[in-house]
Design goal:
2 domains; 6-stranded antiparallel β-sheet; Jelly Rolls; elongated
Length: 376
């Protein structure tokens, strides 16, 4: 029986675990899993130079956990030694009192649109060393620091090389170099003033969007995903009067969760409006985009079935419309999950309950007709 035909789910004969969320992607499904409560996935800048360590800090990069944050194979092998750098023959390179600016450059490593983790140990006794990881802007490093960098190779400046530059008068060593792909649809914001901030309400972490210009966005998927697709989010609106987007696609390839003036709606070319009234409390919305047999669930209850249109899903925008030109979210996002397939009844339970617990809303409205406190 299709889950959309019911009004509530009350079967809780198995323990809550995040493992079922990871299992949604076990066959390599396109999609994403965002968890603001996992601070190891958050960075203050879009290139991952500065981790988020606490509340009140901006989020310029949120990693997608759907691929398990599992790194690919090692891509770095060597530098082409230039200038005064010396290959020490043990996986390290050194320079002593450089007479002028001099560089180390790897072979081409990056692929446009992908993201990588780069780790390097720098010992800088004097002068200045800057690293250009796969065509990002330079980042200065100092003695004793090991940097972990996530970056997208799409800047077209130095042919996707790892490039290290020493200024004149520098004495330094670089070693323990690693470059590995980090698969996933990681969401970024390059503009510092347009980044949401991490906040905490009780024990619940969330991203706070200012309703003015804050949003995060992935690169487009490598291929548009035809329906059916499943999207869910835990969120809270500050006002019901505005049109605001929680999740959207990329460009014309939209699978959208949003509101106009109260009830949650879904859109992939045609608007499907939930019959649940607008709510300023924490809520979980689940949408299956399946053309004329699509449905919306609010807090575990089926509230709309019908046509969302047939647009494919082409990427993920968080906190505004895919054009990023308006309808910005003034509110909170506690987590979001998207998978390019229909989910089973049990999988929907897992997703809704996992997101509900992320909000910390353990009282009314009840999720699935059962108070969350009764599940703990």
């Amino acid at each position: 029986m299709r889950i959309a035909l019911g009004t509530a789910i009350t079967n809780f004969n198995y323990p809550l675990s995040v493992d079922p969320i990871a299992a949604l992607f076990k066959n390599g499904e396109e999609g994403a899993w965002y968890d603001p409560s996992d601070l190891t996935t958050l960075y203050q800048d879009a290139n991952g130079f500065t981790p988020v360590t606490g509340t009140g800090q901006p989020v310029g990069l949120m990693l997608d956990k759907s691929k398990g944050l599992t790194l690919g194979s090692e891509l770095f092998s060597d530098f082409a030694t230039e200038g005064l750098w010396t290959d020490n023959g043990n996986g390290s390179w050194s320079i002593t009192n450089a007479a002028s600016i001099t560089d180390l450059r790897s072979a081409t490593l990056g692929v446009t649109g992908k993201r990588y983790r780069i780790e390097i140990t720098f010992t800088v006794s004097s002068g200045l060393v800057a690293v250009y990881p796969l065509n990002t802007s330079p980042y200065s490093v100092s003695s004793g620091q090991t940097k972990v960098v996530f970056t997208e190779a799409n800047y077209g400046v130095i042919s996707d090389q790892l490039w290290i530059r020493a200024a004149a008068g520098t004495t330094a060593t670089v070693s323990n170099i690693s470059v590995k792909e980090l698969p996933g649809n990681h969401a970024t914001q390059a503009t510092s003033t347009a980044r949401p901030t991490l906040q905490l309400d009780g024990s619940s972490y969330y991203l706070d969007f200012d309703g003015v210009d804050d949003y995060l966005q992935t690169a487009p998927f490598s291929a548009n995903q035809s329906q059916p697709n499943s999207l869910a989010a835990a969120f809270k609106f500050t006002t019901l009067a505005r049109t605001e987007f929680v999740l959207d696609g990329i460009g014309a390839n939209r699978n959208t969760i949003y509101k106009v003036s109260g009830p949650v709606q879904a859109y992939a070319g045609t608007a499907l409006v939930s019959t649940a009234p607008g709510d300023l409390a924490e809520q979980v919305a689940f949408v299956e985009f399946s053309t004329t047999t699509s449905f919306i669930r609010n807090n575990g209850v089926l509230n709309a079935t019908g046509d969302t249109g047939a647009s494919p899903w082409g990427g993920i925008t968080i906190g505004t419309a895919s054009s990023a030109t308006g309808n910005f979210l003034d509110g909170r996002i506690y987590g979001a999950i998207g998978v390019n397939r229909s989910l089973t009844a049990v999988e929907i339970i897992d997703v809704e309950r996992y997101l509900a617990l992320k909000t910390g809303a353990f009282s009314a409205p009840a999720i699935f007709g059962v108070p969350i406190a009764a599940l703990l």
